[in-house]
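Structure ticket #2291
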Amino acid sequence: MKRSNTLERLQRLDILKARINSGDAMTVALIAEEFNVSARTISRDIQILRDQGLPIDADRGRGGGIRLQQNWSVGRIKLTYTEAVDLMISLAIAEQMQSPIFMASLKSIRHKLMASFSADMKHKVTGLKERIRIGQGVSSMVLATLVTNEVHLVEQLHQAFLMQTACEIEYQDQAGKLTKRTIQPHYLLLNFPVWYVLVWDELRQDVRTLRCDRIQKLSLMEDEFKLLPISHFEFCLEGVDAI
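Resolution: structure written out below.
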């Protein structure tokens, strides 16, 4: 039986992982025969996949069956870029809220998700939690005026926020007046259930607090911005639960 090199092992691991994810019936002996390696080699491969987070059940011996744990299927999910961004922001929100419930695995989930990002994306994601603020609930008057943004608009806002790029928006203020603005989305604030974005507003040449649900249109720009300290936005947070 030949000794496999590193490239062959990597290729074998990819194929083995795909086969296990497919749910096809297989045994250690059959897989070893298929790849022309020993059963011990396949057992070592299975342990490598386990170490990578794939929850595999394998019976002892050459005839032992190989399968995913029956209560597990998350590994089959493939996220798009926008889905991954939304998930990272959602995890950052959960961490910032510091709830003791359902928090045990958040750090490991975030680390595994970050492993799929580029070095530049990892750098931006690292400080994400500090850019999200959790405040108090809003008044009933504010709640009565809350509307739901289109999904596409929310995705674009998330992307501009994460990648620190400017965007052009149409914004409707409390009086119903519509203005076009170029903004830099520096921080997000949740006064449940209303979201606000703390921005540098080119129109006003100053920092502003904008209600996310009042953004009518949004288009991404290529201009990146340097993050301002949260102290620049302190006065923007006064009375925000009333707008």
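Closing remark: The mean pLDDT is 80.
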